[in-house]
């Protein structure tokens, strides 16, 4: 469609179609994406990993306890041996969770998420000399997200780890930094998961190698979830 420009006897042709552009706001790259509609969600892809725009998750402030260090804990969460449970700050513990601090010390790092219905239970170890059972301390490092209805029986979960829904992390498992456990995965007792791999299946096996950018991806995912976990407006 032609339109006449201002000026004497001149004209120009408008483009047949125009595509609005929007610049990705994720801090890892500056790829541009088509904006199909106003207010659309922008998803960007990097090394086969999708960065969704995390929408706000609202919770009832009367059902959660907020601590001075920024932890948000569901009031009816079962904290056995609470004197042995250390939440280092800005950790979310959702509904129907159980943390067994009465068995051994449990430490959870900053910006971590324990999803609804998950059970955190320190692993048992047989002391052969005494013929007794001892429980080992359980450490969950920072920027770890654990999905819904999981059973965590590990000894160490490193930094920047993502665990999906309905997973079983067997007795004395060790999850090194920057790994991913997909939904419905079962790890056999004593499994050690290396860094920068994705584990799936029953029993869990390495299926994909992750890019080095996964560290930043998981860090951003954990922080964004905490930032967008907000009480209902009054």
Architecture overview:
The chain has 234 residues and is mainly beta. It has 1 helix and 31 strands. The strands form 8 sheets. The protein has a 9-stranded mixed beta sheet. Strands 10-13-16-21-24-27 form a 6-stranded parallel beta sheet, with no helix packed on it. Strands 11-14-19-22-25-28 form a 6-stranded parallel beta sheet, with no helix packed on it. Strand 29 (197-200) and strand 30 form a beta hairpin. The chain is globular. It starts with a strand and ends with a strand. Residues 1-50 have low confidence and may be disordered.
Concise synopsis of the structure shown:
The chain has 234 residues and is mainly beta.
Number of DSSP helical runs: 1
Task: Report the count of strand segments.
Answer: 31
Taking strands numbered 1, 2, ... along the chain, how are they ordered across the largest sheet? 8-9-12-15-20-23-26-29-30
> What is the structural class?
mainly beta
Morphology call: globular
- Ranges with pLDDT <50 over ≥5 residues? 1-50
Distance between the termini: 51 Å
Strand residues, percent? 35-45%
Largest sheet: 9 strands, mixed
CA-based gyration radius = 23 Å
What helical percentage do the residues reach? under 10%
Mean pLDDT: 83
